[in-house]
Amino acid sequence: MTELICIICPRGCHLTVDETNDYAVTGEGCRRGIAYGRAELQNPTRVLTSTVSISGAMYRRCPVKTSAPVPKALVFEVMKEIGKITLKSPVSRGQVIRKNIRGTGVDLITTRAL
Known about the structure:
Blueprint: E1 2-5, E2 14-18, E3 24-26, H1 31-42, E4 45-46, E5 49-55, E6 61-66, E7 70-71, H2 75-83, E8 86-88, E9 96-98, E10 108-110
Parallel strand pairs: 5-8
Antiparallel strand pairs: 1-2, 2-3, 4-7, 5-6, 6-10, 9-10
């Protein structure tokens, strides 16, 4: 059995996930807690937020995020790739700046127009 704190909503339910019983979840306050508990043990993922360098803009860094969650095991590889990116102004909010980053099937997008 594994104990987790659900991060899906502000309630922070204390979940218990039984791996030997088909990842049965107890302690949830809603259905989303059940899905989170199972996914966190079977295939943990995270949406990444960061910044990249940008030239010719008011600011030196442009905020970015992944368009969907990436496998937790690839977080550091994706962050290394993000660290190598330099944009040139102008960029629009929601602009895809790297498709399929590190082969994850997830795009990296800007979250601010600069």
